[in-house]
Amino acid sequence: MPAEPTRVLVTGEGPLLVSGPVEIELPDGGTVVSERAVTALCTCRRTRRPPFCDTSHRRRSKPQ
C-alpha cells in the first residue's frame, strides 16, 4: 500500500476530484494519464473533454 492512499472527493453537483497523478482506463480499453495535483473527472456527461470535467455542469438549468 502506498504511503498515502489516493484521495477521491465526491462533490454534490460537480465532478469527482482525484488527488495526485492518475491513470484512467476508458470504456474502449484505452488509457489517459493526468499528472496534475488534482484531476476533475466528469460525472454529468456533458463535457466536451471526456473523461475530464470542463465545467459543463455549471450550465445546467436548476429546477425552479
Please provide a written account of the structure.
Residues 19-63 form the Iron-binding zinc finger CDGSH type domain. One of its GO terms (cellular component) is cytoplasm. InterPro entries: FeS-contain_CDGSH-typ, MitoNEET_CISD. This is Iron-binding zinc finger CDGSH type. It contains no helices and five strands. With 64 residues, it is mainly beta. The protein has a three-stranded antiparallel β-sheet with strand order 1-2-5, with no helix packed on it. The protein has a two-stranded antiparallel sheet with strand order 3-4. Strand 3 (22-25) and strand 4 (31-34) form a beta hairpin.
Name the descriptors.
single chain, 64 residues, mainly beta, two-stranded antiparallel ribbon, 5 strands, globular
SSE class:
mainly beta
Unreliably modeled segments: none
Largest sheet: 3 strands, antiparallel
Strand line-up of the largest beta sheet: 1-2-5
What's the number of helices?
A: 0
- Which assembly state applies to the chains in this document? single chain
Strand content: 25-35%
Rg, Cα atoms, Å: 13 Å
Helical coverage, percent range = under 10%
End-to-end separation in angstroms reads 47 Å
Tell me the series of helices and strands, N- to C-terminal.
Answer: EEEEE
Task: Characterize the overall form.
Answer: globular
Q: Please tell me the overall pLDDT.
A: 87
User: What is the total tally of β strands?
Assistant: 5
InterPro entries: FeS-contain_CDGSH-typ (IPR018967), MitoNEET_CISD (IPR042216)
Keywords: 2Fe-2S, Iron, Iron-sulfur, Metal-binding
Pfam families: zf-CDGSH
Domain Iron-binding zinc finger CDGSH type: 19-63
